[in-house]
Amino acid sequence: MKNIGFLSFGHWTDSPHSATRSARDVLHQSIDLAVAAEELGADGAYFRVHHFANQLASPFPLLAAVGARTSRIEIGTGVIDMRYENPLYMAEDAGAADLISDGRLQLGISRGSPEQVIEGYRYFGYAPAEGEDHADLARRHTAVLLDVLKGEGFAQPNPRPMFPNPPGLLRLEPHSPGLRDRIWWGAGTRATAEWTAEQGMNLMSSTLLTEDTGAPFHQLQAEQIAMFHKAWESAGHERTPRTSVSRSIFPLVDDRDRAYFGADRASRDQVGHIDGGIARFGKSYAGEPDALVEALAKDEAIAAADTLLLTVPNQLGVDYNAHVIESILTHVAPALGWR
């Protein structure tokens, strides 16, 4: 059995061929797709965050809206770039969104992906400290976030406040109990997966890995997940962690599917260069349901993870993406034991 959700990058473009022509279109359709996914029996609605791009960038209003319109599915991000975040303000926003959804928030965070602009986090008022690089900046912000999410008091109260204070140091409000255990880190390497376990965060294996051993993408991810679990056990955490992988999966069940994704039958892993280093990208899966089942059964990372996020082509609109999700839940998931 697996948790199966969708992951939307939230693209929009002013093109007559796009169902999302504006940011308004993407935001409203994201909510509608989450509602449709819940009705179809999916388990989660996740959204990518990118700044300075025609994509979703401010996740918490969207997550709160999805939480208010749904009742069961998890809502989350994959991932928020912590280089850009004020961790205290983020903790307040996340707490509010989690309370609105009655504890369904699964918050994916990370160092982030390659940016649209040069050192964009500096425009937001953040910069690495002396001796830090941008990855250190993200981890420093993350450490603060994880600490304040514990709900412990740390701020000295005003002796003459506007409103009466409880005794002792004050914490951030609203506080949502349990949210600290639902923070995920998007890890692009095996070493980062081990660090993630040490910090007590769930593992969100990246859609691209910034290392290449020559092994297929799914095997490298499976190794990453195994190393995460070993490091988690060594750290002595009491709870059971979660792991996720993302995949583009398209059952070809009608003429629309074949027109859009028939060429992806021949998809293969790709190796490229990101930020001056080697990166490995996973392939897309497209084919008739029987062929998909056979191919997906060999994906070692999907087998190792408890959560599968389906990357959806959001610019094709709500109805088509709901059709893709339904096809996977109906024609593929049962045959693989995911349902």
Automatic annotation (TrEMBL):
Protein known as: LLM class flavin-dependent oxidoreductase
Source organism, top-level taxon: Bacteria
Domain Luciferase-like: 9-259
One GO CC annotation: cytosol
Pfam families: Bac_luciferase (PF00296)
GO molecular function annotations of the record: oxidoreductase activity, acting on paired donors, with incorporation or reduction of molecular oxygen
InterPro entries per record: Bact_Lucif_Oxidored, Luciferase-like_dom, Luciferase-like_sf
PANTHER family from the UniProt entry: BLL6902 PROTEIN, LUCIFERASE-LIKE MONOOXYGENASE
Gene3D superfamilies: Luciferase-like domain
Species the sequence originates in: Nocardioides acrostichi
